[in-house]
Specification:
2 helices, twelve-stranded antiparallel beta sheet, single chain, 12 strands, about 45% strand
Length: about 200
């Protein structure tokens, strides 16, 4: 087999892998609103909060029928009047698509959670961009003690006007990379063949 044929086959093999689309995508879930509770023993009342959970759509599971979980790979916490921090325990974003409910929970103890309900979440599978959708007034459920880098965060059930959204991260199109590599190889091969 001639050397140029071997090179062509090697590049074709590589290009075929580069054109396979990625099955999983990074996704960021964001909750905002106002919250009442304590952080490291310091009480706070109706403080603005933002919780951000980074995850991967390949990690979505269904621990119970009709319930979806996506365990967060990283988190961030922002509560007005406190330093920024993160959760130091396992956190999963959760959805019950048939009821239009979403939120987050400790996957080992789902009684510890912050959940809202909005018809915009009906049928949502945690894997696509959605929202923001809000539950006006008090959240459906906000209870629990959560370990954070700032100390223990305790909800008193006082979450108001909670909004939830999800954004799938933009990923470079692998097919484009493969086509460019294959085109460059074709140009180089053509030049080599013309030189003799």
């Amino acid at each position: 087999m001639r050397n140029s044929t071997r090179v062509f086959l090697a590049w074709s093999f590589l290009a075929s892998f580069l054109t396979v689309p990625l099955a999983a995508e990074s996704i960021t879930y964001t909750m905002t609103g106002t919250l009442t509770g304590t952080l490291d023993g310091t009480p706070f009342f109706d403080k603005a909060f933002t919780f951000v959970f980074d995850a991967n759509t390949a990690d979505i599971t269904s621990p119970d029928p009709g319930v979806l979980f996506d365990e967060a790979s990283s988190t961030s916490i922002s509560i007005a009047g406190f330093s920024a921090g993160d959760f130091t325990q396992g956190i999963a974003v959760a959805a019950v698509p048939s009821l239009g409910r979403v939120g987050f929970a400790d996957p080992s103890n789902t009684d510890e959670s912050l959940v809202i309900e909005n018809s915009g979440f009906d049928g949502w599978n945690l894997a696509t961009t959605v929202g923001p959708f809000e539950e006006s007034g008090a959240a459906l459920g906000s209870t629990g003690d959560f370990s954070t880098s700032l100390g223990t965060l305790v909800f008193f059930g006082g979450a108001e006007n909670v909004s939830f959204s999800a954004t799938v991260a933009a990923v470079p199109e692998p097919a484009t990379i493969g086509l460019i590599a294959l085109s460059l190889f074709g140009i180089a091969l053509r030049r080599r063949m013309l030189r003799g």
